[in-house]
Amino acid sequence: MSSGEEFGSVKSSSYDFLSIERKWQKKWSDSNAFVVSENSSREKCYVLEMFPYPSGSGLHMGHAFNYTIGDIFSRFKRMSGFNVLYPTGYDSFGLPAENAAIKAGVNPKNFTDSAITKFISQQKALGLSYDWDRTLKTSDPEYYKWNQYLFLKLLERGLVYRKKASINWCSKCSTVLANEQVHNGACWRHLDTPVELRHLEQWFIKTTEYADELLNYVDSLQWPERIKSMQKNWIGKSHGTNIIFDINKKFWTIFTTRPDTLFGITFLVVSAQHPLLSDFVVTKQKKSVDSFLRKIRSTKQEDVIDLEKEGVFTGSYAVHPLTGENIPVYAGNFVVADYGSGIVMAVPAHDERDYDFAKKYDIPIKIVVQPKEKKIVPKSLSEAFIGEGVLVNSGSFNGLDSVVAREKITEFLISEKKGGRSVQFKLRDWLVSRQRYWGTPIPVIYCNSCGIVPVPVKDLPILLPANVTFGSGNPLESSDIFVNTKCPRCNSAARRETDTMDTFFDSSWYFLRFANNKNFKAPFDKKIANYWMPVDQYIGGAEHACMHLIYARFFVKALRDIGMVDFGEPFPRLFNQGMIHGVDGFVMSKSRGNVIDPLDSISKYGADSLRVFLISVASPDKDFSWSDTGMESSNKLVQKIFLHLSNVSIGKTSSVDASRINSAIKTVTKNIEQFKYNMAIICLRELFENIGDELSSDDLSSCIRVISPFCPHICEELWELHGFQGFASHSSWPSCDDSRIDNSLDAKENLVDQIVKDIYHVMELNKIRSCEKITIFVAEPWKFDLFSSVKKLLDDSRDVGFILRKVLIGDMKKQSPEVSRLVPLLIKDTKKVSGVILSQNEEFEVLKKSNKIISEKCGSKEVLVIKSQESSDPKARKSLPGKPALLIE
RNA sequence: GCGAGAGUAGCAGAGCGGUCAAAUGCGCAAGCUUCAGGAGCUUGUCCCUCAGCGGGUUCGCAGGUUCAAAUCCUGCCUCUCGCACCA
User: Fold this and answer.
1) Are A150 and A512 in contact (CB under 8 A)?
2) 3-state class of A524 per DSSP?
3) Is the Cβ atom of A201 within 7 Å of strand B at any atom?
4) Closest of A687, A581, A589 to residue A641, by C-alpha
5) What does the pLDDT average to over A154-181?
6) A672-to-A58, A118, A706, A732, A735 alpha-carbon distances in Å
7) Which residue, counting CA atoms, is nearest to the C1' of nucleotide B39?
8) Tens digit of pLDDT for each residue in A609-634?
9) A750 CA – B36 C1', rounded, Å
10) A360 C-beta less than 7 Å away from strand B
11) Cα dihedral sign for A53, A58, A59, A61?
């Protein structure tokens, strides 16, 4: 009973989380607590979060969530004995900094650097266990020098080239974009700004060279299914046939996946964006084609999504490779210019798009594949039949199954030298040049006599000039000192490339630099990179599925083939965290005004509480909504744990507690490994709900250690408070001793709970006020110490001035006469007996007898509660005499 | 349209063949505590009934497999995300 009082007095106070957190953050920092080296006999584990773009507004809740997930994992792995590399850095080049800097009138460098400083302090406030010695920023010449180096390496390898192409231009960014950066026809940073098509000469990286490998190895990755399917889709491999058509005495290749429908071609369509469209346009048709092109250009991008298929006859005819028929060639708005050859063969009977087009322009429809079940005729055809069937109207191929016919016709075309097998990808080469300032200068020089000349490695880095004019066009062009140079080959006057690199170039190899960030001779040392890489656990959002994650995979494969690393996949394991929504259920965003600043939460509740909250609402891979009450509840949990463990006295752990602790260790270990952090918190919640005030030193240490990945600060404090040596963060992960787990504990606890509830019923029935002293007898035949458990629960609840007397009855089956004697005696001897609680294993006859005696001897105020686990005959029970008696099973 | 994922109590969210009327948190209700408020503690919270036992109906909808389904299969509906005329 006294313990309850003690506990209550402590509860009312709250701990000073701010000073505790500051204290330990400083100690970790001062002692370089999480700095690692590769010279370790321990197994390595590389945990990495996608490094942030350091925006001026600082760390947002999504970052905090992301890093909490990674930090818990890192701390867990570290404690589990791994040599853990857990670094962070800053993807600090990029347009937002440049734009913000222009707006605020400061240099992007200053802007970025102060943003990074802010970021670092916020990350430290979260208690993240980074190796701060390995930090990097991509805008640092010491970093981008190696961007330039690697660019030259790729150039040397033939993986970088320059070409004039139809490219995507964002007017808001005033730069070109890569295919991957065009979302829904708009710029990925400006979803309200449709991209414009421009014809410009740009730098490309041959990602398509690795298309097959990028696709094939997706399946070997332990990534979320969703991301894998997005990548596969993006790479988009199709098998088909190239067919050669003669148009105006020139030969053109056309790609199709349905060579079986070759005899059904009634027209061809050239993309309206096709660079050689004019080759097809005859003089007579020039006017109408031109007006069609004008119309397309004036079409607003937002209407493109459900644009009607339109086209115009070019005046040219193609010769059908097998029948020799003349086929009209159209220009059309629905043909993708840079897929295949930008020209498609149209089979309106068996392709929806071709069908729509043919209907609109009244072009004949010819059926060449008949479905097996129901015959179709052109007249009644209301939509294209795109399924498989049997070939008709196809010369010698009639009667073949369409799947077979694809093969046969392709073979025939090959034998006739009129085609061949082909594989097409949706993946395009990566356009890496950008017409902006705040990025890595592309290390190339244009010389009038030598042409494109790579900058010699000894001249790297090509530094970004400080004095440039922001405003119109590429700022780098405004710097004469930068632009004007000498040709490294012939020493004559030459011009520097003024384009900078897409910042995705920077993030395609940063994980390699973390392994060896102080290397001044090379981007990284091969041996060291091979030691740490690949990243054992990568953590980040899903938005990079088709951008960063493709580029980085490509990069590593290219570096492998150049001989710089020995592995082909940078991130075998990827975890995607969910999105955080505001209290209103919408994604947290400034424009919605539902943003919660992590720092506000930290100053109100502490970092440990915030960390717990972020991972306890839902499984970390799912979206969840912020909730103030949830945040408070997490804070209460952290306080409770801290205060309870602070007050634990060192002694002997009860067997019940030992069981609880060990099974919690087991569960939490499993949960962390599977990223089910929310379940781990539930398990810990239950543990600290029940655990006693006296523990052995070892068990107390286990309790602290098992929560330390989640709440590192309070754990360090508790660790020190109880005199353990070193950092809790450096201690070993507690191991589970199965022999101390009592599997029947749950059942026992349930029984105790039940009895306590029975007691409340007794009180209720008797209208017992809490201030009254009453006596309750617990008769217990159990082997374990039920009595003390019940007593403890009642004591802790502090509700009632119970006098609880222990009555040992033993095995009631054998002692029914004794029970019969005992019960009335108890009642007689005690003035205010309100209840007698008997427990399990009684024979029904015993109950009946006892009950009868009681009801005879007692007034209506007395109650008999019989707790029975082995069910007696329910029918007989109903007929039990005497009221009010409780019979609880 | 194609691809992926999801639909569980007032809400959030576990469970993914039996131990499920379903963890945990929030919310709500009652009791205790308190000068009061807050906090804290205890209990309850699908429906009926009860002091308890018990019974009924549930896990998007409709079927099916099974001795047994929230969990497996089929169809449908709804939602979220990604790609978007890729021939």
Assistant:
1) no
2) coil
3) no
4) A687
5) 91
6) 28, 30, 11, 15, 14
7) A12
8) 999 999 999 899 998 989 989 999 99
9) 38
10) no
11) negative
Amino acid at A380: S
> Amino acid identity of A281?
V
The pLDDT confidence band at residue A724, using thresholds 50, 70 and 90, is: very high
Query: Does residue A695 approach strand B to less than 7 Å at its CB?
Result: no
Q: Which residue is nearest to nucleotide B19 (CA to C1')?
A: A747
Is A325 near strand B, with its CB below 7 A from some atom of it?
no
Q: Do the beta carbons of residue A331 and residue A312 sit within 8 Å?
A: yes
**Cβ within 7 Å of strand B: which of A 305-324?**
305, 307, 309
| C-beta within 7 A of nucleic chain B, residues 712-771 of A | 753, 756-757, 760-761, 765, 770-771
Virtual torsion, Cα A443, A446, A450, A451, nearest 10 deg: 100
The C-alpha R_g of chain A, in whole angstroms, comes to 38
Task: Report residue A757's pLDDT band, with 50, 70 and 90 as the boundaries.
Answer: low
CA A342 – C1' B87 distance (Å)?
10
Task: Give the pLDDT score at A884.
Answer: 27
| H/E segment holding residue A104 | helix A95-104
SS3 call for A560: helix
> What SS3 class is residue A214?
helix
> Given a cut of 80, is residue A657 above it in pLDDT?
yes
- A122-146 per-position pLDDT tens digit: 999 999 999 999 999 999 999 999 9
Cβ–Cβ < 8 Å for A357, A269: yes
Q: How much is the pLDDT for A299?
A: 63
Query: If we measure between CA atoms, which residue out of A270, A264, A266 comes closest to residue A285?
Result: A270
- What pLDDT, on the 0 to 100 scale, is given for residue A750? 59
What's the ipTM?
0.93
Cβ–Cβ < 8 Å for A447, A492: yes
Is strand B within 7 Å of residue A339 (CB)?
Answer: yes
Evaluate whether A205 touches A196 at the Cβ level (below 8 Å): no
The pLDDT confidence band at residue A752, using thresholds 50, 70 and 90, is low
Q: Any atom of strand B under 7 A from CB of A226? A: yes
Please name which of A227, A33, A259, A233 lies closest in space to residue A731, comparing C-alpha atoms: A33
Q: CA A679 → C1' B23, Å?
A: 9
Q: Is A107 left (phi over 0), alpha (psi -120 to 50) or beta?
A: beta
**Of residues A297 and A3, which shows the higher confidence score?**
A297
Q: Report the nucleotide nearest the CA of residue A346, measured to C1'.
A: B87
More confident residue, A286 or A102: A286
State which residue has its Cα closest to the C1' atom of B23. A682
Q: Is residue A688's beta carbon less than 7 angstroms from any atom in nucleic acid strand B?
A: no
Strand B contact with A601 (CB < 7 A)? no
A644 touches strand B (CB under 7 A): no
The answer on pLDDT for A85 being more than 90 is yes
Q: How many CB atoms lie within 10 A of CB A689?
A: 11
Q: Which residues in 288-307 of chain A line strand B, with CB less than 7 A from it?
A: 304-305, 307
- What residue has its CA nearest to the C1' of B43? A757
Strand B proximal to A877 Cβ, under 7 A: yes
Let me know the angle formed at the C-alpha of A529 by A156 and A543, rounded to the nearest 5 degrees.
Answer: 80
pLDDT digits (tens, 9 = 90+) for A483-495: 999 999 999 999 9
CA neighbours closer than 13 Å in the CB half-sphere of residue A71: 31
Three-state SS at A824: helix
The amino acid at A89: G
Sign of CA dihedral A87, A93, A95, A101: positive
For strand B, give the nucleotides within 7 A of a protein CB. Answer: 3-5, 12-15, 23-27, 31-33, 38-44, 51-54, 81-87
